[in-house]
Design a protein that fits this description.
Layout lengths: L1 E4 L5 E5 L3 E3 L2 E3 L5 H7 L1 H4 L7 E8 L3 E7 L7 E7 L1 E8 L10 E7 L5 E4 L3 E7 L3 E8 L8 E3 L38
Antiparallel strand pairs: 1-2, 2-10, 3-4, 5-12, 6-11, 6-13, 7-10, 7-12, 8-9, 8-11
Length: 187
């Protein structure tokens, strides 16, 4: 696998080795051994995933920007297995030199890229294709009482979601998250 560092420490793009021939393709979507040997040294700690999640969404669906509060914070390894999404993280770690900054990467079934985000980031995505199937691994179980979020439409973040606002499909819950300026980070 090839690891690409982003401007946000703890957010990494992972490109798996894909083997293609006339029959199709094969790749390891995850290897704990390879992850430990390549990613853990960059992070300075190991990550053990305990839960896998999958969502299916239509064009224009935007989810986020979500996180879980301590002590139930989550690191995630994300990938799009069908279609295309714009995957976005925002650094919400107090004292971080990149606090409030975001990074976006397009994850598609064609590029097979994965996106690792460490604890201390808010995460969201927008569906760019007619439909998308999105999978992610988490290193902590979901705890509804620890849910948190920042407004996905906060203009101060400067995120180009590549979806016209009038075509964005948001859950009611996601329309009620605070703006970053109103947010008191638990990290």
């Amino acid at each position: 696998m090839n690891i690409i560092e982003t401007p946000l420490k703890g957010a990494l793009i992972i490109e798996p080795k894909v083997f293609k021939d006339a029959r199709g393709y094969f790749f390891e979507s995850f290897s704990q051994r390879e992850f430990d040997s390549l990613v853990a040294p960059m992070l300075g700690h190991t990550v053990t995933f305990v839960q896998d999640n999958e969502s299916m969404s239509s064009y224009g669906v935007m989810r986020g920007l979500h996180f879980q509060r301590p002590p139930f914070t989550q690191s995630k390894l994300l990938r799009c297995v069908k279609g295309a999404v714009l995957d976005v993280v925002v650094d919400i770690r107090k004292g971080s030199p990149t606090y409030g900054q975001h990074f976006a990467v397009e994850l598609t079934e064609e590029n097979k890229r994965q996106f690792f985000i460490d604890k201390g980031f808010a995460h969201g995505f927008a569906v760019l294709s007619p439909t998308a199937v999105f999978q992610y691994k988490c290193d902590e179980f979901y705890h509804p009482e620890a849910e948190g979020g920042i407004s996905i439409l906060d203009a101060s973040l400067g995120i180009d979601w590549r979806i016209p606002v009038e075509k964005a499909i948001l859950s009611e819950k996601d329309t009620k998250h605070p703006l970053l300026a109103e947010f008191d980070s638990p990290f």
